[in-house]
Design a protein that fits this description.
The complex is a heterodimer of chains A (287) and B (346). Chain A is of the alpha+beta class and 287 residues long. In chain A, 35% of the residues lie in helices and 15% in strands. Chain B has helices spanning 7-28, 48-51, 96-109, 120-123, 169-179, 215-242, 257-266, 319-332; strands spanning 36-42, 58-60, 66-69, 78-81, 87-92, 114-115, 132-141, 154-159, 181-191, 194-202, 206-212, 247-251, 273-281, 284-291, 296-303, 306-310, 335-339, 342-343. In chain B, the strands form two sheets. In chain B, strands 1, 2, 3, 4, 5, 6, 7, 8, 9, 10 and 11 form an eleven-stranded antiparallel beta sheet that branches. In chain B, strands 13-14-15-16-12-17-18 form a seven-stranded antiparallel beta sheet, covered by helices on one side. The chains are: A alpha+beta (287), B alpha+beta (346).
Chain lengths: 287, 346
């Protein structure tokens, strides 16, 4: 989520701390998330972000996985740019500039790479053809990204740690306590967390995410909010101990904070194991 | 036997209140009847039937979207214009002490209803038109997040005219306006050299018509603000739906983040937010939670002098002006709202 937040916000400007993202500076004010574009041979390509300005267009791939994305990035150079009209972006005749965005460095071949963990790191900017973009990326090197605002989706269609899942659904869990709440199914919770990414995720990833959410809420019900939250008729609902009172809200909030912070230590090993069930090479990255 | 059956009956009732006050003003120099009030209510597109009525039930009149209340306490004293699905206008001929309580109770208890939180640009907009003159201002700062013994509260309400009875008063007002939130503004309309209307707008969407001569003129004045507010909501919703930026708030006063966290953890206060802190530093905190107005989700990232608000899915964007106005009067002072560097709710 930090990867998405710190990449997406590079398209925006925030006056409070004089931040103007390099993509915005270079005129890329319009972009789409995971659009379907085709090559001349009808090969399907879905870069995570596609943006267009008057001077060119851009495909950005976001990944937190420790394997090179060279082939995937190369495949974006073959996208037929006329398909930009289908997604409402300015059409160009040329191939896009392709950028990979990561939190830590992994060699991604002959493409510009931005690292957006805390301070913006730009590597291989000389490979960016668009002069305005090259210049703005260079000028923003070292920008502090830690205080950029959240983005609306709080779950992602890729592997997430227990802490990320808990943080990603904590506000949706609060919604369960709405007066006369009809409850939510695990799938509804996942779809809410994915927000506008919900229709961009495959069934396998969706199922994995639903299971992750069930597991984490199970821990919440059992160890942190016993008697306040229950699972019945396939839905999570408030249980008998819940009352619409500010002290109860304060208590629930405190327990939810405990639930999130507990995931930092107690489930770390489990997470690593889950993320690499057959070792890093045995995985089949979906994105 | 109901006496108000038509829209024209509602207008006659309001006009009679205006005229009664005009007569007593000319005869005694004071107004003795209650002053007409209106409240802008953000309905979040719920139906009038579901919203219920502050006093009794709503009975429709001959014009679609118009209703009168049935009582029992104050029958035919409240008139609802719900012709716009999003922003309703509730007219009242009750005394302020009765009327304010009824409306506040109604809005607070009914899920989906909220006040229309007017930004300073909304409240000052008549300064751009030729016929209107600003005749006073109310400024409020409660310093609500500071410990009581250290709270630096500020309150100023100044009625003024072209003539300045205290040298330097205008300078004080201007400086206060730049530091604190505007709670109310009084406007006066001059037609053919005479005052045809005088009204005070409050930041929670209430307007008191202190003097009026023409009910249609008063309704047009109130409708103008309602439409402006509705346009702002529509614009904010479009931005939220089409982009991934956050609404940005710039505060003129620094706030105590620990106090903010403590208040929102309980879900209390005018902000109607119930939040869980998920990331915290001494100068920056991230929260996730719900807007108790609609129980929609909200994500808030906040520093002592600015904040970001992200509203996922189809959440109601009325939380944006509410945070600016309620939090502005409580603790953040003059608060600007921006989206991708541009002013919104302006």
């Amino acid at each position: 989520l930090r990867l998405w937040r710190n990449t997406v916000q590079l398209f925006y400007e925030y006056r409070s701390f004089a931040f103007v993202g390099p993509f915005k500076q270079a005129g890329f004010s319009d972009y789409k998330i995971s659009p379907l574009l085709l090559t001349p041979e009808a090969g399907e390509r879905t870069p995570d972000i596609v943006a267009s300005s008057v001077s060119g267009w851009l495909a950005v791939e976001l990944t937190s996985r420790g394997v090179p994305k060279t082939r995937q990035l190369e495949s974006y150079t073959g996208i037929d740019p006329r398909y930009l009209s289908n997604i409402g972006l300015t059409v160009h005749q040329s191939a896009p500039d392709v950028v990979s965005s990561r939190l830590t460095f992994v060699e991604d071949g002959p493409f510009c790479q931005i690292l957006v963990d805390e301070k913006l790191v730009v590597q291989k900017s000389n490979l960016v053809k668009n002069g305005a973009l090259r210049q703005s990326l260079e000028s923003c090197k070292g920008t502090d990204l830690t205080k950029l605002p959240s983005v609306p989706f709080t779950l992602l269609p890729e592997s997430m740690t227990a802490q990320e899942v808990r943080e990603g659904i904590v506000d949706i869990v609060l919604q369960l306590f709405e007066p006369n709440s009809s409850g939510k199914t695990p799938l509804q919770i996942v779809e809410q967390g994915l927000e506008r990414l919900a229709d961009k995720i495959g069934q396998k990833d969706l199922h994995t995410l639903v299971e992750r959410v069930k597991e984490q809420i199970g821990i919440l019900m059992k160890d942190f909010l016993p008697g306040y939250l229950e699972f019945s008729d396939e839905k999570y609902r408030p249980a008998l101990k819940w009352k619409q009172h500010h002290k109860t809200k304060d208590f629930i909030g405190a327990r939810l904070r405990d639930w999130i912070s507990a995931s930092l230590t107690s489930t770390k090993v489990t997470d690593e194991w889950r993320e690499y069930p057959t070792g890093p090479t045995g995985r089949n990255p979906s994105r | 036997m109901p006496s108000i059956l038509k829209l024209s009956d509602i207008k006659e009732c309001i006009q009679a209140t205006f005229e009664g006050n005009e007569e007593s003003l000319h005869a005694f120099g004071k107004t003795y009847q209650t002053q007409v009030k209106a409240y802008l209510v953000e309905s979040n597109d719920i139906s009038v039937q579901r919203a219920g009525c502050p006093d009794g039930e709503w009975r429709s009149v001959d014009a679609p979207g118009w209703y009168v209340n049935t009582g029992p306490r104050h029958p035919e004293a409240l008139f609802l214009d719900a012709t716009s699905p999003r922003v309703w206008k509730l007219y009242s001929v009750l005394d302020a002490t009765q009327s304010d309580g009824l409306v506040e109770d109604w809005v607070r208890k009914k899920k989906g209803l909220d006040h229309c939180w007017l930004s300073r640009r909304h409240m000052l907009r008549w300064g751009e038109t030729g016929n209107w003159q600003e005749r006073g201002i109310g400024i409020r700062f409660e310093d609500g997040l500071a410990p009581i013994e250290q709270a630096a509260t500020f309150s100023l309400k100044a009625w003024h005219s072209v003539y300045q009875p205290i040298p330097g008063l205008q300078d004080v007002i201007e400086r206060a306006k730049e530091r604190f939130a505007i709670h109310s503004v009084r406007w006066q309309k001059v037609t053919n050299g005479a005052v045809s209307m005088s009204a005070e707008w409050f930041s929670d969407g209430k307007v008191t018509v202190n003097r009026g001569t023409d009910v249609d003129e008063a309704m047009a004045f109130i409708t103008d603000m309602a439409l402006r507010y509705e346009d702002s909501l529509t614009r904010a919703t479009d931005l939220r739906n089409s982009k991934l930026a956050a609404f940005e708030f710039e505060f003129s006063q620094h706030i105590n983040l620990e106090s903010f966290a403590s208040m929102t953890a309980k879900g209390i206060g005018d902000m109607k937010l119930w939040l869980v802190e998920i990331e915290g530093y001494s100068d920056f905190k991230r929260f996730k939670g719900v807007d108790l107005h609609t129980w929609d989700r909200v994500l808030i990232d906040i520093a002592p002098n600015y904040a970001f608000l992200t509203i996922p899915e189809k959440g109601c964007v009325n939380a944006v002006p509410r945070l600016a106005v309620a939090q502005g009067e409580d603790s953040t002072g003059k608060t600007e709202i921006l989206y991708d560097g541009e002013l919104v709710f302006a």
